[in-house]
Amino acid sequence: MTVTSIAPETVRSDPERTRRRAEELFDPDLSPVLRRLGQRPRGAADAATLHPDDAAARADVADMLVELGFLAAGEAGPAVADLVEVAELIGSALYQSPFLDTVTAADLLAADPRYDALRTEIAAGERTVALAWREDGRGEPHHPAPLRLDAAGRTVTGVRRFVAFAPDVDLLLVVGRAGVEDRLVLIAPDAPGVRLRRQDDIGRGDLYEVTFDAAAVAAPGSGPAGERYPQALARARIRHAAYLAGLASGAIELSAQRLRDRTAFGRPLASMQALAFRLAALAAETTAVLAFAREAAQRADRGADVRLAGAQAAFLAADVARTASAEAVHLHGASGMTEGCDAQVFYRRAAVDASWLGTPTGLRIEAARLLAAGYAAEKRD
Amino acid sequence: MSTTIERDPRLTVAQERFRDDVRSMLAEDRVRRAVDDVAVYRPDQEAAHLDVYRWLGARGWLAPGWPVEYGGLGLGPVESAIVTEEMALAGVPDDVHVLSVDIVGSFLLLEGTEEQRRRHLPAIARGERIATVLFTEPDCGSDLSALTTRAEPDGDGWRLYGSKIFNMKSRFGDVALCAARTTDSGVGMHGITLFLLPLRSAGVHIEPVPSMANDRFDLVVIDGVRVTRADVVGRVDDGWRSINDLLQLERTGIDFHAKARRLLDLVIRRAAQTGRLDDPAYALPLAELDARLTAGRALSWQMVQNLAEARPDPVASAMAKWYVTEQFRPILHTAMEVDGLDGALSAWDADAPGLGRLEAQYRLGPVHRLASGTSEVMLYLIATNGLGLL
Ligand SMILES: Cc1cc2nc3c(=O)[nH]c(=O)nc-3n(C[C@H](O)[C@H](O)[C@H](O)COP(=O)(O)OP(=O)(O)OC[C@H]3O[C@@H](n4cnc5c(N)ncnc54)[C@H](O)[C@@H]3O)c2cc1C
């Protein structure tokens, strides 16, 4: 398949250095604490408030991510190759925040120079952004839901669901189809005409339904998503694949420890080949997916077309994240089901995160389409 | 979709009629309402003393295989399987039924004294008494031979000391079948005895253990409760054998299959409602899972037939339990493909499709491969007794 160059210049990266720095933040001792931050009680619905300690701890980590320079942009934004390292560690710690959404928003906003000032603020950690592209849970981000802008493009009416951290961010970046093109619209979550409702989901996290009733579009107004959109989405999927690989390896590590600690039939469960091999196979799969994400990230940073790789890495990573987290519960036995055990936290999070940037089936359909288009183009060449 | 379960050529006319009767009762509005109520219970509520059990019990349908004098209908394993299957297909929570009727009731029928049977079986069969199972301990689950709950001699009886965990419904139970060590012989399997333990005794402390599923586990701490020979089920020191014999005998896969079928039907219905059933990307995996469940049901019913003919086959039973429970994970993953993130919304969210049942089932998903003998225990039985391996 021909590789089309999308960005004119190569983005500089130093993944090893980035990883070393990120590991200081997501160290193994801290991960169990990060995993639990912001978990609401079951069934808390929209009455759930975040414990102030959790909110403070989350904010501290968010500040660190900025201080470590992970948002700092060169001309074309932070390198994908650097961010996959950060995303993988975020995934294994299950740290939930607007960070990855904000990175993607900055990438999307690069489609229009009017947003440059905002991108500079984002890079400095002064603004956070949540993405809002789904009208319902079946929506796939590569087909943004319709959007109703008034004639002057100044207000928006409609609904977006599964918007993460909507009340906590500075801006919502609504992506939607208006007429024949996909558009980007910035709206402040506290603007008049914006209503937020927390959704009660299996991850018990920070997902919101956002209703816009002639809500004012924030400066500098709406812009076209443009040709950059599918590539920026693909770059987001590569980062998300790394996040999911991290989630899987976190679940595998937790399970390996359990097998070492738990005895049955007079010996550690770790000595039982049937169980050890299952974790070994999952570790191999996870490592392969992460290698895929890293390679795709390097290609993205060289300006290659990564739409196919983005979709593929994301569905492979989603599959392994779901399986590894389900195995984690199983290998813990009944205790894996208990609220006190982190195995079930991985399992519940994976249920949401596996479909975050497209369901694995939606991604497979997209990948098949791109594959066919690629071969058709090759034939023509 | 009405139902994917067709008339079974293996059933007699009377058995077919029995199924029709049970099915019509379970299709009544009051039952449907009760089932929907459970789906939207508050997070701190769980199903225990349900009226549905009493409605079934009033007709002798909770335990149709038991003799009439103990509250049954004197029918056989086929009718019992029909009730189990129909209850699960109708979405009636079945933990209490499995624990009280299928496990404790069966132990009492097979190994209990006449006095124990008369005291407990009729009340269980009426759906008025809950009997639970106290086998698993914090340090032993798969390997029950390592259990440490002690029965210390005390005059003509014993006093029980120990902790039992991951049992269900004990907070609502009246009596429990409790495995404890009467003799410390150095050989784990020897010296275990089964006792009927009154759960509402001064020395029994029960505490819920929150689970990611809707129903909580219980931790039961037993602190010196006195029991006598009259409370022993089966023979002293012979509990290991009876646990293994009975659990293998009761295993058909029928209950697990029916739960998986109800879930898959829900997913197929959602796919039809959302138009995704017309898309091969979704329809192909659903067709595959439908085939697997049809195979699983055929195998499970073969196990019931074997029991009816008094020719149980523990290896094939293990295969049935393993095979059908392995389908839950792919069904749940497919459900999340069909409904996308909507499938992740709980019953406590107004937008959740189908009263949030998918999300609740997703959280419950892992238990099927763990409860009633884990997948690995099933594979061990197949590999050793079936294939002569290991
Ligand atoms: C929903 C639910 C309801 C339950 N209800 C009851 C109840 O009412 N009463 C009661 O007493 N108990 C109950 N249990 C407990 C159940 O019997 C145990 O969970 C089960 O026996 C497994 O034990 P464990 O959880 O301690 O896992 P462990 O024994 O710690 O096993 C952990 C994992 O290792 C695997 N494993 C263990 N040994 C081997 C081996 N030799 N080879 C390969 N793999 C192995 C297991 O399959 C499992 O996946 C319930 C469990 C569940 C999930």
From TrEMBL, chain B:
Under the heading InterPro entries, the entry gives: Acyl-CoA_Oxase/DH_mid-dom (IPR006091), Acyl-CoA_Oxase/DH_mid-dom_sf (IPR046373), AcylCo_DH-like_C (IPR036250), AcylCo_DH/oxidase_C (IPR009075), AcylCoA_DH/ox_N (IPR013786), AcylCoA_DH/ox_N_sf (IPR037069), AcylCoA_DH/oxidase_NM_dom_sf (IPR009100), Mycobact_Acyl-CoA_DH (IPR052161)
* Pfam families the UniProt entry points to: Acyl-CoA_dh_1, Acyl-CoA_dh_M, Acyl-CoA_dh_N
Q: Does this entry carry the keyword Oxidoreductase?
A: yes
- Keyword Zinc annotated: no
The protein's required cofactor(s) are namely: FAD
**UniProt domain Acyl-CoA oxidase/dehydrogenase middle: residue ranges:** 134-215
Q: Which residues form the Acyl-CoA dehydrogenase/oxidase N-terminal domain?
A: 14-128
**Which residues are in the Acyl-CoA dehydrogenase/oxidase C-terminal domain?**
237-385
> What keywords appear on the UniProt entry?
FAD, Flavoprotein, Oxidoreductase
Extract the PANTHER family matched here. Answer: ACYL-COA DEHYDROGENASE (PTHR43292), ACYL-COA DEHYDROGENASE FADE29 (PTHR43292:SF3)
Assigned protein family: Belongs to the acyl-CoA dehydrogenase family.
The protein's name in its UniProt record: Acyl-CoA dehydrogenase family protein
